[in-house]
């Protein structure tokens, strides 16, 4: 697309990662687009205490508009944002999602484009496939394009079957200026660390992969970061509560290994590496992940990442994991993501997709 294009992006939050796992993804993509000449305004609601838990100030590479979580607040943001060349509605804003998803395609001015950016496509698709009267089914074809946070071929096929004009996955990646190896921090010393908020679609898998491993290895030290776990007590698991993104590098650089656990729907679809996989790899961490289809597209099992089918296998990996082997795997993962999986590269993909769309 012609550089200088204006984008109005309606999402959960750009400035706060509090109950907002997509923050790093938004930041990486939008910063990369800015460097390619795009002008992005990010519209986010003042909701869930995110503004009082900011991780970053308003960035130089995007304009941030915080609107009141009311119909009037949404309408005001839409009225301002409709003048852009591309309007993007992300899934999971958290307030007035249905309202926005109906309003954004209708708000675009003549000649402008509207895109839906699904940051949890497996869950969205499963919901629509189960509910034939789902409000979003007739809206899919109203958008010029659907971007997804991941999901691979199955997500693309499902969205096209539901009437999407085009569907393109844009995977998570590394921002090497934000996530990188740092000095170890004593408070994050552990044999295994896991960062993740307590979510219904993931909780049973956390119990299996994390807490089961902890119960089988009472002599090992485990740390758990994220919101919602306050009532869980396991003798060798230390709860940290919310860990700000500014501390993620220290967390990932300190633990002997860090655990990735996909949400249930993402694990079923595969090809959905969460942001924290790339954050951890960027910090040189030794990652243990649950098994999901497509992982080798991002990291090579055995040499760049360790893969477990359940909590027992996580425990077995930890039993034999030496600091030397963990460091070697971490170095290999760092080299892979730094060379192949950066947000700079993802932004170029988005630019290429948009140029092709305009060309058609």
Structure in words:
- The protein folds into 2 domains: 186 residues, Rossmann fold, CATH 3.40.50.2000; 155 residues, Rossmann fold (3-Layer(aba) Sandwich), CATH 3.40.50.
- The chain contains 12 helices and 13 strands.
- The strands form 2 sheets. The protein has a 7-stranded parallel beta sheet, with helices on both faces. Strands 10-9-8-11-12-13 form a 6-stranded parallel beta sheet, with helices on both faces.
- 48% of the residues are buried.
Features:
2 domains, globular, Rossmann fold, six-stranded parallel β-sheet, 360 residues, 12 helices, alpha/beta, seven-stranded parallel β-sheet
List the helices and strands and how they pair.
Blueprint: E1 6-10, H1 23-35, E2 39-45, E3 63-67, H2 71-81, E4 86-90, H3 97-107, E5 113-118, H4 121-130, E6 145-148, H5 152-161, E7 167-169, E8 192-195, H6 203-216, E9 222-225, E10 237-241, H7 248-254, E11 257-260, H8 264-269, H9 275-282, E12 287-290, E13 306-308, H10 311-319, H11 323-340, H12 343-359
Parallel strand pairs: 1-2, 1-4, 2-3, 4-5, 5-6, 6-7, 8-9, 8-11, 9-10, 11-12, 12-13
């Amino acid at each position: 697309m012609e550089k200088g294009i204006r984008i109005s992006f309606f999402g959960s939050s750009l400035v706060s990662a509090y109950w907002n796992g997509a923050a790093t993804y938004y930041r990486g993509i939008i910063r990369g687009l800015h460097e390619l000449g795009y002008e992005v305004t990010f519209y986010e609601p003042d909701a869930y205490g995110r503004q009082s838990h900011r991780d970053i100030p308003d960035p130089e590479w995007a304009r941030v508009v915080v609107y009141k979580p009311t119909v009037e607040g949404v309408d005001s943001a839409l009225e301002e944002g409709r003048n852009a060349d591309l309007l993007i509605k992300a899934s999971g804003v958290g307030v007035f999602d249905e309202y926005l998803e109906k309003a954004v395609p209708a708000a675009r001015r003549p000649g402008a484009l509207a895109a839906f950016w699904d940051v949890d496509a497996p869950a969205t698709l499963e919901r629509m496939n189960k509910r034939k009267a789902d409000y979003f089914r007739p809206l899919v074809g109203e958008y010029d394009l659907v971007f997804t946070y991941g999901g691979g071929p199955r997500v693309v096929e499902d969205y096209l079957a539901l009437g999407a004009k085009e569907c393109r996955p844009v995977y998570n990646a590394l921002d090497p200026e934000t996530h990188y190896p740092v000095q170890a921090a004593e408070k994050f010393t552990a044999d295994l660390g896991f960062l993740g908020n307590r979510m219904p679609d993931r909780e049973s898998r956390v119990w299996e992969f994390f807490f089961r491993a902890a119960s089988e290895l009472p002599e090992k030290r485990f740390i758990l970061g994220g919101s919602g776990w306050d009532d869980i007590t396991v003798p060798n698991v230390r709860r940290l509560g919310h860990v700000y993104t500014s501390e993620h590098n220290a967390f990932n650089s300190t633990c002997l290994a860090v655990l990735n656990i996909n949400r249930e729907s993402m694990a079923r679809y595969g090809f959905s590496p969460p942001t924290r996989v790339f954050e951890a790899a960027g910090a040189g961490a030794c990652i243990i992940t649950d098994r999901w289809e497509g992982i080798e597209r991002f990291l090579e099992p055995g040499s760049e990442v360790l893969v477990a089918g359940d909590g027992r296998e996580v425990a077995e990996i930890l039993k034999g994991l030496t600091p030397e082997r963990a460091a070697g795997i971490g170095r290999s993962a760092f080299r892979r993501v730094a060379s192949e999986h950066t947000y700079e590269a993802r932004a170029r993909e988005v630019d290429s997709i948009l140029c092709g769309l305009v060309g058609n």
